[in-house]
Each structure stands twice: as C-alpha cells, then as structure tokens.
Amino acid sequence: MKPIRRRSDKPFFLVMGGISASFVVLIVLLLAADVLFTSSQDFADALGKPEIRAAFWLTMLTCTVAAIMSVFVATPLGYLLARFEFPGRRIIDVLVDIPIVLPPLVLGLSLLILFHLPIGPTQWKLETWLRDDVGFPVTYRWPAIVLAQFSVACAFAVRTMRVTFDQINPRAEDVARTLGCTRGQAFMLVALPQAWRGIVAAGTIAWARALGEFGPILVFAGATRMRTEVLSTTVFLELSVGELDAAVAVSLIMVLMAIVVLILLRSLRLGLST
Amino acid sequence: MSRSVVVIASAFVVLVGALVLLARTDSPRPRSFDGGTNGSGGSPDETSTIVLFCAASNRAVMESIRGEYESEFDRHVQIQYGASQTLLSSIEVSESGDLYLPADDSYLALANDKSLVAETIPIATMNAVVAVTRGNPKSIQSLDDLLRDEVRLVQASPDVTAIGKVTREALGKTNDWRRLDAATTAYRTTVTDVANDLLAGAADAGIVYDAVLHTYPELEAVRLPELASINSKIAIGVIASTKQSHAALHFARYVASRDRGQLHYAKHGFETTLGDVWSDVPELSVFAGSMLRPAIDETIASFEQRESVRVSRVYNGCGILVAQMKAGQIPDAYFACDTEFMNQVPDLFPEPINVSQNELVILVQKGNPHQPASLRDLGKPGLRVGIGHEKQCAMGWITQNTFREGGVQTEVMANVTVQTPTGDMLVNQLLTGSLDAAVVYLSNAAGAGDQLDAIQIRGLQCSVAIQPFAISPTSPHAQTASRLFAAITASESQENFLAEGFRWELR
User: How confident is the model at residue B48, as a pLDDT?
Assistant: First the structure.
C-alpha cells in the first residue's frame, strides 16, 4: 500500500498567521506612531500637570466603581436570561443591548433628559429632587461620570455573563437542588464558582469600556477641570486647543493604564481558575 | 464561608472604598459673593459657584482669566468645556448654569432664539485666514493657489461650523465658493480639527480663524483679500435661567472688560472689541428728558438690581441737559425728549437711535370747564395757559413750532402765564387750579387721567416729538450702557412706554 504523503502545514499557518498578524501589526503600528509622535518630555509635562493627575485618579476610581457595579448587576441578570424563560425575556434581552448600539452622545443626552425631565403638574424633576431633598446632585458631578460609564459598561458585562452562563451546563445546579440546595445556594455554591472566568472577563470588559467612554460623560458630567475631567475628556480638551503632543501623551497613559489593569485582571482570573 | 461570598464581600469593600475616595474628590469650595454692594437682589443662591459653559477652543485663555479672577475676588468659577453645540444642548435640557461662551456668536444667536440667553457681552473678533504649515511649503499666496491639484485643502463644514458658514456666505456671492468647494479634500466638524489636520500633515491648507493659530506655533496664517471681510465674534451670554445674575454678570463683565479679560484675549491672538473699563460696581450716568421718567425709571431700577450696577439718573428739561453737557458734564447715555435736542450735541452722541414718540396735547381740568377745543381756543381772552420753556425743554420748543405752524402763536402767547422747564410742573399747576389749560405731552397726563382731560391737537405733524437714545463713544461703560438700552427697548419696557402715552418708534 502506498503510504499517504503527509502535506506540509506551513501554508495553513502562513495564511492564518498572515491574516491574524494584519490586526496585531495594525495595533502595534498605531502605538508606535503615537510613541514616535510624542516624547518623554511630553509625558513628563503631561504627568506634571495637576489637572491631568487629578483626571488620572478620577478615571481610575470611576472606572473601578462602574466595573464593579456592572459585574454586580450583570451577574444576576445574565444568569436569569441564560437559565429561565419568563414573560418579557426577549424584550429585556434586546433592551440590555441598546446602550451598546446607541450613539454615545445620544446616551449622554438621554441621561441628561432623564434627570431634568419635568414630570406631572408639579413639574417634578429627578435632579431637583436629588439635589434639594436628598442632598446628592448628580449632573455635572462625579456620580454622572459613574452613571454614564456604568450605562455602557454594564451592557457589555451583561452580554458576557449571559454567554458565560449559557456555556455552563445547568445539570450540576439541578443535581445540587435534588440534594437539598435552594436556588440561591445552587447559584452561590455551584453556578458562581464555575462562572469566575466569565465574571472576571465581564469586569475586564466593563473596566476597559468605562475607560474609553467619552461622549456620554462630556454631555452628562461635563468636562470641568479637577472635578469631572477624566482622561478621555482630557484628550478631547487638549485636541481642542491644538495640544496634540499632550493629547497623544495622555492617550498613551491610558494605554498603559489599560495594559496594567488587564494584566492584573488576567492574573486574578488565573488565580481564581486554579 | 464559600469563596464566592468572600470575593463578593471583597468587591463590595473595594466599591465602597472607591466611592468614599470619589466623594472626597468632590468638595466644592463654598464661597460668598458680595458683588452686589447696593444690596439689591441679594439671594442665598449668590453664595454658590458660577458655572460657565465654555467652548473648548477658549480653554487656554479662559483658564488664565479664571485664575486671575479667582485670585482677585476669592470667588470660584466652575467651567464646563465642550463643543459649542453640545454645551447649548446641555443648557437647554438641564436649564442649569450661569454663563455660556461658545466658539463664536452664531451659537449665542441660536441660544437667543430659544430664549436661553438674557444678556450678551461682546469680547473679541476673529478673522478668517488660510492656515499653512510654517514656511508655507506649498507657496500659497492667493485663492487660486488653494485650487491647485497638489494642495490638499481642508475646510470646516459650512453646515455645522460658523467659519464654514460665513466663508460660504461671503464667497458664495462670487463664483469662488463653487471652485473652493470642488477643491476641498475634506470638511471637518470643528475649526480646530482643520488646524489639527495641518499639524498632523494630513492637509496642506485650511481656512481657520486667525485666533485659533495662536496655539499652533507650527502653523502660520496667509491673509487673502477674498477672506478679509469674513469674521466672527466671540461673546459671552448670561443664561436666562441663572439664579445668580449678579455673580454671573460680574464675571461676564470681568471677561469682557478692556483692562481685565480682554488683555488675556489679546495675548492669545484675538482682536478685542472695545470693552468697558473694569469696575467692581460700575456707575452709569444717564441724562433723560423729564417726560421719559415714568416710562423708564422702573426699567432702570430693575436693570440696577439684575446687573448690580448703579445708574445715576438726571431727569430735566432737555435744554438744561444740553447746557450741562456743553459745560462738560458728559453722561454715559442720553435719552432726549426730541431729536432737536439730540442734534445739539452731535459730537458727544454721534449715533442716536429713535425709540419712541410722544404727542403734544392740550390738558384741561376734568369736564373742560373753559371749553378750549383746539389750539386757536387757547387765545380766548382771560384763559390762563401754561407751556414748556422754549429754551429749557424740547416740549417748549415743539410747542412754539406748533403754535407757529398753526398760525396762533401771537394770540396764544398773550394768554401764557407760565413757562416751565418740565411738563410735570404744568400738570401740578393745573391740578392746583392756577392754570386753565396747558400744552404738554400726552405722557405728562398719564398719571392724572382721573382729574384732567387731554384734547388732541390735530393736523400738525410738528406736534409729535421723537425720543432718541444714544451712548457716548467715550463712555468707559459703553457695553453696560448698551445693555441698559437693550433693557429699555425690551418688550416689558415697551409696555411701560405705551401705558404712559408714548408710541413705539423703534423698529
């Protein structure tokens, strides 16, 4: 019998690698162009500005809050959508995607309208009530940043958690319930530990999404220096006055932040998986 | 305790910790505002921060003005930067903020159309130029050079930007716009995007405002004759819904004053308009004919309260006012009873604007006991007639003209027992019974309609006086005076004029 001649796999890897490399190379080139456009002095100047340092910390804090809140909301919502059929499920499934497809400025404008819409004969407004009665104004303050980031980031987190729970076989939870667990115990003790990788992924995506958020923040929270200016708005403000060097330097700071946080979250995911 | 609970608890602790840190970043400085030293219009809201919605393109100059203002007055200005249209939408929806400073005044016109802005104060002017990289490597010297194939021309969109719009309007009158449009490689949504394209090497030329180039040392301006007439203005508007007009106007005046904010604008490459001399509480002086007092005094008082300024009013016969001005007392604004008395000081007030009309009437006691029905009847023997003084007030001058035109001057003057500098005095004398008839303005009778009757003088156009308003070009507070004029010609003020017997002249 004539032995089967094994063909080389090189063409496969060349084609696959070539296609894949096109995207990776594009990103590398983009970063390289940014690095070449700026200088270490621009970095030093950018980091030396108290406004940019304040924007850095505000960005870190708001992104973290938005990401954690997103995971807290996305986990039960993703679980319910993945596990149960209930009235309105399809509608909710579509609704949670709306912040993803909505143009960012429209989302910001919608938030602004929501908080300032006069309702009823008394012309009751949510913002006025929060400001005057609760003592916690939202518009043009840091809560507006968090809310704008959360509105988009949570949608991505829900989508991630939905896929995560879809991929986890519900049989283990069913078995736990036959052994006496309540639904809550089955969720906490069986489903959740299996979903850790997805939860961390959802948190990662939510954090990254919040970091890049710009349009809704500009409309709903404004861009007040030292108060509501996050790094994405810093880039916009620097571009507006022709400070391209500073804008690129801040952009690269955002890239570095994202890399550090993504590495940390990947480490966490690996730790939780073991 | 399961690992899930531990991780959730840890995340919760991180969340709370981050929220606490965020809350600590948000500590607005409570500052008191004491600009309203005249004590009018004070309110608890004036202790809060001034919120300015400012075009991002003005950030550099506004930050330097803000720093100086805050150090001079120890008051806080919170500035929201953004695109002009986005900021306008925010103001419209949130009904918040105190001031709006867009990239050019076309947005203020939009805001005005929507009644979002109450006052507008001009600051500077920007002219259209062609921006090229320093050294002008493509040798662009004329409009035709922009049409060359190797020149990548970028413009700001004529649909969404002011410079694009005014460029299209100006060049559209000739064939230049069509040629420029065909040669344009791309349209951008802001003028700074055009400059950024040049900086990034994506374009060779772009039409921008000259002031924009101040922050682009790598670029230079080429001034073309076709663009020479194209300009836009920078102005600051007071948001109509502001609850702290004193504080808002205080900062707005500071930004627009020639020896404060405008110095910064000039330093940043803007061509400044002639602003007011800075004053913490400006004092305006206004000369006005006595007959105008009932129509304008309430408006002026409201103006003082809203702006936190002082307006010194001098009401008198216009002849006396003119004599005072010729003697060297120059007011910031002059509101004359008739054009004749404005025309006597053309050097001081070269650009008067006619505002209202007032007609002469014969005023008699209720029921008209002596029964004069026309000018000629005022010559009846024994009638005691009062008129305005010909030299001291417009009313007297117009009265004499009317008598002459009516052919009754000799007869009526024989009965004239008193000539006063103001109509009010004649009304008082009629009320006390020391006169039988007086020739005064209809507005003089407005407050005594229940005790006096007015008889119209028919067929003599010269019996109608026209009241012009003018601002002294040498006034150190010309802008404030302009806002006073805007208040006097506003619809609420027009109603006051009509109620006092005036007719509205200004179109």
Answer: 66
Q: Which residue has the tokens 């002086």?
A: B285
For testing the chain A interface, which of B13, B50, B90, B160 should be mutated: the one with the most A CBs within 10 Å?
A: B90
Count CB-CB contacts under 10 A for residue A234.
Answer: 29
A142 touches chain B (CB under 8 A): yes
With beta carbons less than 8 A apart as the criterion, state whether B108 and B118 touch.
no
Angstrom distance (rounded) from CA B436 to CA B455: 13
Q: Is A191 on the interface with B (CB under 8 A)?
A: no
Q: Is A63 exposed, middle or buried (0-12, 13-18, 19+ CB in 10 A)?
A: buried
Judged by a CB distance cut-off of 8 A, whether residue A80 touches chain B is no
Burial of B88 (0-12, 13-18, 19+ CB in 10 A): buried
Determine, for residues A188 and B4 on separate chains, whether the beta-carbon distance falls below 8 Å.
yes
Q: Which of A61-75, B423-437, B438-452, B482-496 is predicted least confidently?
A: B438-452
pLDDT category of residue B1 using cuts at 50, 70 and 90: low
Q: pLDDT for B194-214, tens place per residue?
A: 988 898 888 999 999 888 888
Strands B50-55 and B99-101: parallel
Using the predicted structure, report yes or no on whether residue B36 has a pLDDT greater than 50: no
Q: Take residue B326 and report the two structure tokens written for it.
A: 């010729």
| Largest Cα span, chain B | 117
DSSP secondary structure letters along A44-65: HHHHH-HHHHHHHHHHHHHHHH
* Count of beta carbons in the 10 Å neighbourhood of residue B82: 23
Split at pLDDT 50, 70, 90, the class of B478 is very high
Cα(B345)–Cα(B333) distance, rounded to whole angstroms?
A: 12
pLDDT in tens, B364-420: 988 888 788 888 888 888 889 999 888 877 788 888 888 888 888 888 888 888 888
CA distances from B399 to A260, B257, B339, B389, B491 (A): 89, 44, 14, 9, 30
Inter-chain residue contact B96 with A140, CB threshold 8 Å: yes
Q: Do A240 and B190 touch (CB under 8 A)?
A: yes
Q: How many CB pairs under 8 A join A and B?
A: 115
What whole-number distance in Å separates Cα of residue B200 and Cα of residue B194? 10
Q: Which two tokens stand for residue B354?
A: 């006619």
A236–B56: do the CB atoms touch at under 8 Å? yes
Alpha carbon of A15: minimum distance to chain B alpha carbons (Å): 33
Query: Is A53 within 8 Å of chain B by CB?
Result: no
Task: Collapse the DSSP code of A211 into the 3-class scheme (helix H, G, I; strand E, B; otherwise coil) and give the result.
Answer: helix
As a whole number, mean pLDDT of residues B240-265 equals 93
For residue B362, give the H/E element and its range: strand B353-365
Nearest to B344 by CA among B289, B268, B276: B289
Say if residue B46's pLDDT is above 60: no
pLDDT at B41 > cutoff 60: no
Q: Structure tokens of B22?
A: 């965020």
Q: Indicate the Cα dihedral angle B70, B75, B78, B84, nearest 10°.
A: -70
Q: Which residue from B minimizes the CA distance to A110?
A: B93
A chain contacts of residue B18, beta-carbon cutoff 8 Å: 61, 64-65, 68
**What's the pTM?**
0.76
